[in-house]
Specification:
Blueprint: E1 4-7, H1 11-23, E2 27-33, H2 40-44, E3 47-52, H3 63-73, E4 77-79, H4 89-97, E5 101-102, H5 107-114, H6 116-125, E6 133-134, H7 141-151, E7 155-163, E8 166-171, H8 174-192, E9 197-201, E10 207-215, E11 221-233, E12 236-242, H9 249-265, E13 270-278, E14 284-290, H10 297-304, H11 308-317, E15 333-340, E16 342-343, E17 349-350, E18 353-354, E19 357-359, E20 364-366, E21 369-375, E22 382-383, E23 390-398, H12 401-414, E24 416-418, H13 424-431, H14 434-438, H15 445-449, H16 461-482, H17 488-491, E25 499-504, E26 507-516, E27 519-525, E28 531-539, E29 547-552, E30 555-564, E31 567-572, E32 575-582, H18 584-590, E33 604-606, E34 611-616, E35 623-624, E36 629-635, E37 638-643, E38 648-653, E39 660-661, E40 666-670
Parallel strand pairs: 1-2, 1-4, 2-3, 4-5
Antiparallel strand pairs: 6-9, 7-8, 7-9, 10-11, 10-13, 11-12, 12-15, 13-14, 15-23, 16-17, 18-22, 19-24, 20-21, 21-23, 25-26, 25-32, 26-27, 27-28, 28-29, 29-30, 30-31, 31-32, 33-40, 34-36, 34-39, 35-38, 36-37, 38-40
Helix pairs in contact: 5-6, 7-8, 12-13
Length: 671
């Protein structure tokens, strides 16, 4: 077995590979850019080599630097992770030329299947059903529009070397083809160093389902169940699960056997994924083959018990697959939520900065329910604008689908992050969405269910009441501690008020709190002071803890909390609320306080996220129409076109291409 391997990647996938390598007794080497000098994968590795500036094109994508790092450390093999150089045949060839093993498939498979255009040509020749489209290289925008018109709208514009939703756009008109083609080329160039683009028909109401395959160097290939990845936003997967709630055994077998046949045709060795688009009648169409480890591989590992990274390493070393097709069994259900550094309340714009607090839920298995968290960050670390916005991949496993969903919601409630914005409220809202829970999915699920973006989840009366009871409990803990400061009780005893007013957002009620042997009884009163209902709160929560864990009337409840002005900020199952507990006099006086009016920024173009200005499309004095492109800002490898919201005249431009801007920086002002 290999004694030392280098991981040519960063973040959570580098850490993930290191865990298995260390379990196998293999030493690991990390590579890092200037931006990653304090990263978790650098800390975890046995050795670490600096490879250049933050930009991936000057560090992680430079083949010669990876080869040099292998030679310097004596690494015998390289695991590429996903993205970066993982599907680059030149990289695989360079490793072979230098006598370094590639923990991935053979070069032919990388060339044929790693290239989206060539893979479709090969699949057609192998009589695999594919989505209609134009498989040749497209020279310019006019040719792209001509091809799209011939195929018929909607069309999918995709980067040939793409992956992870980068360089991918759906276009419903000529105008969208023009915008999408140029953006896709630019993103593909910066992400993969390859700006070739192809276009295919976009199948409406599709489900995205993929088959995991494993092949060795001795001709053995098996399929390892399927994953459903239909919950996507901007072609970027958000939630994955295994198995699929839609696929029956006959379809699973047919898709699996077709995937194996395709893999055998290229003598595939290593882990790989054959992706399919599946329509409402379970007809499936080959989409592409990813010749690498997938981001969502943990859900397959959880339902099968197979360590895919370990299999990749053993296959690369030349070992035969010890697993036969009949050995692969599906056990229970697994969910994966991608936790991204983005603001769901601002159209999911990227968020960068320092992780002031990073407290994930505890990993492990209890009562048949499992939590797994694959991450590459740590508290105090920084989320950089140079790389993918993923913070973690939170996974759960349970005996059935609804149990896995409910356990995911419970795990998300415990996940506490401060310093940057993140998508946990949005993902948690999906866990409770009726359509998701029923498994009625398509790749358009998010766009269809959240057409105007995500604005939080409204609180039901029952949940508002329970959050109010928790706020009263926390207030009692704080108040009880306050009256004991500096030994004041001995000299001048102080007592707490008998009644309070608890407000949750715009809703408020009078309450009385009574200590009992079973916990704190929070009694709600009407305006006349009569008891209406009560809730028993039990918890070991103490001031300073960012997550409340306890029971409400015997039912477990986990709520994320922050101290806020005059109260607490609470988040539960995708809903956020401000709760305040005041004395009767304090409540009366608070109602007299004037509201602060936000400044008018309607005549400014504000930078919606921390990012780099790529293009300014207008000049001072220019008249623009609503919808016209004003500027392009790049953040986390994604280009964002900023458009005019109304007809106006550009009065002043405050930024220029190359500027690095903070969120809400004024890019330009309008007359």
């Amino acid at each position: 077995m290999f004694k030392k391997i280098l991981i040519a990647n960063r973040g959570e996938i580098a850490c993930r590979v290191m865990k298995t390598a260390q379990k196998m007794g293999i030493k690991t080497v990390a590579v890092y850019s200037d931006a990653d000098k304090d990263a978790l994968h650098v800390e975890m590795a046995d050795e670490a080599i600096h490879i250049g500036p933050p930009a991936a094109a000057e560090s992680y994508l430079v083949i010669d630097k990876i080869i040099a790092a292998c030679k310097e450390t004596g690494a015998e093999a390289v695991h590429p992770g996903y993205g970066f150089l993982s599907e680059n045949p030149k990289f695989a060839q360079a490793l072979a030329d230098n006598g370094i093993a590639f923990i991935g498939p053979n070069i032919k498979a990388v060339e044929v299947m790693g290239d989206k255009i060539e893979s479709k040509k090969f699949a057609n020749e192998a009589k695999v059903n594919t989505v209609p489209g134009y498989l040749g290289e497209i020279a310019d925008t006019s040719e792209a529009i001509k091809i799209a018109n011939e195929i018929g709208y909607p069309v999918m514009i995709k980067a040939s070397a793409g992956g992870g939703g980068k360089g991918m756009r759906i276009a419903w008109s000529e105008e969208e083809v023009a915008d999408g083609f140029n953006s896709s080329k630019s993103e593909a160039k910066s992400s993969f160093g390859d700006d070739r683009i192809f276009i295919e028909k976009f199948v409406t109401q599709p489900r995205h389902i993929e088959i995991q395959v494993l092949g060795d160097k001795h001709g053995n290939v098996i399929y390892v169940a399927e994953r459903e990845c239909s919950v996507q936003r901007r072609n970027q997967k958000v939630i994955e699960e295994a198995p699929s709630p839609f696929i029956d055994e006959a379809t699973r077998k047919a898709m699996g056997e077709q995937s194996v046949a395709l893999a055998k045709a290229v003598n595939y060795e290593s882990a790989g994924t054959v992706e399919f688009i599946v329509d409402k009648d379970r007809n499936f169409y080959f989409l592409e083959m990813n010749t690498r480890l997938q981001v969502e591989h943990p859900v397959t590992e959880l339902i099968t018990g197979i360590d895919l990274v370990e299999q990749m390493i053993r296959i690369a070393y030349g070992e035969k697959l010890a697993i036969k097709q009949e050995d692969v069994k599906i056990n229970g259900w697994a969910m994966e939520s991608r936790v991204y550094a983005e603001d769901p309340y601002r159209n999911f714009l990227p968020s960068t900065g320092r992780l002031v607090r990073y407290r994930p839920p505890e990993e492990g298995t209890q009562n048949g329910l499992t939590i797994r968290n694959d991450t590459g960050v740590f508290e105090g670390g920084e989320i950089s604008m140079f790389y993918d916005p993923m913070i973690a991949k939170l996974c759960t496993h349970a005996p059935d689908r609804l149990a896995a969903i409910d356990h995911m919601a419970y795990a998300l409630d415990q996940f506490h992050i401060e310093g940057i914005q993140h998508n946990i409220p949005f993902v948690n809202a999906i866990m409770e969405h009726p359509r998701f829970r029923e498994g009625r999915l398509t790749t358009g699920f998010i766009a269809e269910e959240y057409p105007d973006g995500f604005h939080g989840v409204p609180l039901s009366d029952d949940r508002a009441m329970k959050l109010a009871a928790i706020a009263v409990f926390m207030n009692e803990v704080h108040a009880a501690r306050a009256v004991q400061i500096s030994g004041q009780l001995a000299n001048r005893p102080r007592t707490l008020p008998e009644e309070w007013v608890v407000a949750v957002d715009d809703w408020s009620r009078r309450v009385r709190a009574e200590e009992t042997s079973g916990g704190l009884r929070v009694i709600f009163l009407d305006d006349a002071g009569n008891r209406t209902e009560s809730h028993l709160v039990r918890s070991q929560w103490r001031p300073g803890q960012a997550v409340f864990r306890g029971e409400i009337d015997g039912d477990p409840m986990v709520v994320e909390i922050w101290r806020a002005k005059q109260g607490y900020r609470l988040r539960y199952r995708g809903a956020a609320a401000h709760a305040a507990v005041r004395t009767l006099t304090g409540h009366r006086l608070n109602q007299l306080m004037p509201e602060k009016v936000a400044p008018d920024t309607s005549k400014m173009l504000l930078c919606p996220m921390p990012g780099l200005v790529k293009v300014i499309h207008v000049t001072e004095g220019q008249e623009v129409k609503a919808g016209e492109a004003l500027a392009v800002v790049e953040a986390m490898k994604m280009e964002n076109i900023l458009r005019a919201e109304f007809d106006c005249t550009v009065e002043k431009i405050n930024a220029e291409p190359g500027d690095s801007l903070a969120v809400d920086a004024v890019i330009m002002e309008f007359a």
